[in-house]
Design brief:
This protein has 153 residues and is an alpha+beta fold. It has a domain of 103 residues. 15% of the residues lie in helices and 35% in strands. The chain has 1 helix and 8 strands, in the order αββββββββ. Strands 1, 2, 3, 4, 5, 6, 7 and 8 form an 8-stranded mixed beta sheet that branches. The longest helix is centred in the first third of the chain and has 23 residues.
């Protein structure tokens, strides 16, 4: 009986060794099956930094530049590669020569893009502001292409 167990153990060990040896070598190199994985969409928190580097998520009011304030923004697709909002631009430098003697504004569409991923969050790196009824007033600052602050990695 002991001889049988010993012979059976040796047989199983030899079979296992033969099977494992065959798994290590691939005939003809690496074999690819199916399409490459698609890009995994971002699922973390997404922010935008204003010109003072204040962090916002879906801001209602934000300083886009030192002289342009975005107000009454309503966001769509926040967190996607492009977030779009409708809102109002208030142009601060015009205060002394503004029409009607008040801070002027006009209706705009805002598009945030250039999503930059950091360790646990992502940030929009570009903003484009276009008037709802073009052209923008002649006193308005050009904010059609604004680079936004993004934290360093």
């Amino acid at each position: 009986m002991t001889l049988r167990r010993s012979a059976l153990s040796s047989s199983l060990a030899a079979c296992l060794l033969a099977c494992l040896t065959g798994c290590g070598a691939a005939d003809g190199g690496t074999r690819v099956e199916g399409p490459a994985p698609t890009r995994i969409p971002w699922t973390g928190s997404v922010y935008v930094l204003d010109w003072r580097s204040v962090t916002w998520q879906r801001p209602d009011l934000m300083d886009l530049t030192d002289s342009t304030v975005l107000d009454r923004m309503t966001w769509h697709d926040w967190g996607a590669s492009r977030a779009t909002a409708t809102g109002w631009v208030i142009d601060l430098p015009c205060a002394s020569g503004c029409p009607h003697g008040s801070l002027p504004g006009y209706a705009v569409t805002i598009v945030l893009s250039g999503l930059v991923k950091r360790q646990y969050a992502a940030y929009y790196s570009r903003a484009a502001v276009t008037p709802v009824h073009p052209p923008a007033p002649d006193w308005a600052e050009d904010v059609s292409a604004v680079s936004l602050h993004v934290p360093k990695a």
